[in-house]
Every structure is written in C-alpha cells, then in structure tokens.
Recover the amino acids of this structure.
C-alpha cells in the first residue's frame, strides 16, 4: 500500500475554521468542487462531482478542530476503499494541515495525477481560508486531461 502525503500551513485561521471548511457543504464547495452535495454528519456520504466524474466519501471520523477522515465508497477503481485523512493542529499563527490519501494498492500513473491535484486543491483550501476565495473545480488549475 502507498499513500499520498501533503502538508500546508494556513495563516490566521484557527483549526476550527479549517475544520469547518472540511466538514460543511459550503466549505467543501468553496475549495474542492462547486458540485458538492450529501450528508456531512458522521456516517453520512458526501458526493463530489467534477467534469470527468466524481467521488463519494463516507465520513468515518470527526474530531472538531483536530481530525476528519473519509472512506471512498464510489469513484474510480483506484480510489475505492482508500481513505482520506486530515489532521489539524495550531502552531503559533498557523493551522497545520497534515493530509493523507491512504491505501492505494500501487503507485499507478493516476496516483501521480491525483497527488498533484490534491496539492492544487490544498492550496485552494489555504486560499479560501486566507482570502475568502478558493479555486474549486471548475475554476481550479488544470494540469492535464485525465480520462
């Protein structure tokens, strides 16, 4: 198993503010994809839709201001059964976000693409929290076509 790992710092935002951007439909649609629907409570499923497709995430763990964890229950075959984990902590004026997309079976080319796109969207999350305006799909940075 292999994982995608990223770390960002969000300036002048509390862990609670970052947590809200990861656990509300308005927050998620402000940085990841504008087409976000579903149930954001523990055990709920959130549907994220993009131009070429989408993902359904079941909410496995919620620890306000500290942790969010999802399981991919629908989407590309490489994603199904993987988990997405967000750990949050305060460090002076920064909220540190440790991101993991865990449990990939093998490091296929699609994983390289997804790693770059996760980085793009994490910067969109940072931008949303620091400036009030993220760059969710379809306004995100395009890195290539993926079919």
């Amino acid at each position: 198993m292999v994982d995608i790992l990223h770390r960002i710092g969000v300036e002048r935002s509390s862990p609670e503010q970052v947590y809200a951007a990861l656990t509300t439909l308005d927050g998620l649609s402000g940085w990841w994809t504008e087409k976000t629907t579903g149930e954001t409570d523990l055990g709920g499923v959130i549907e994220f839709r993009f131009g070429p497709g989408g993902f359904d995430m079941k909410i496995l763990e919620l620890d306000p201001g500290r942790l969010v964890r999802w399981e991919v229950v629908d989407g590309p075959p490489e994603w199904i059964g993987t988990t997405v984990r967000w750990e949050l902590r305060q460090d002076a004026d920064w909220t540190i976000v440790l991101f993991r997309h865990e449990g990939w079976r093998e490091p296929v080319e699609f994983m390289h693409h997804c790693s770059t796109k996760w980085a793009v969207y994490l910067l969109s999350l940072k931008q949303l929290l620091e400036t009030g305006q993220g760059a969710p799909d379809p306004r995100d940075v395009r890195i290539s076509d993926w079919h």
